Amino acid sequence: METYRSNAARRWVLTLLFSLIRAVGLILLGYGILQVGLSFQSHDPSQRSNGILTIAGGIVITFTKEILTLITG
């Protein structure tokens, strides 16, 4: 019975952790989209490249769980 409780607690903690990671990734994704949009308004290529890198990082962070599942099998 103890192993069932510990497995359930472990799954709950992992679900919470990956949900928090996904939330941070979505925030970064939104911030990157905002940066790219503002760069078009101000014609700033460095801000545009930073925005695109932030979008790419946000996508990777958002799909961390799926990426780890693909890697580990």
Polypeptide structure, described:
The protein has 73 residues and is mainly alpha-helical. It has one domain. It is 93% helix and 0% strand. The protein is built from three helices and no strands. The chain has helices at residues 2-42, 45-62, 64-72. Helix 1 packs antiparallel against helix 2 (45-62). The chain starts with a helix and ends with a helix. 4% of the residues are buried.
Low-confidence stretches: none
The total of helices stands at 3
Question: What is the H/E order?
Answer: HHH
How many beta-strand elements? 0
- How large is the radius of gyration? 17 Å
Strand content: under 5%
What is the residue-averaged pLDDT? Answer: 92
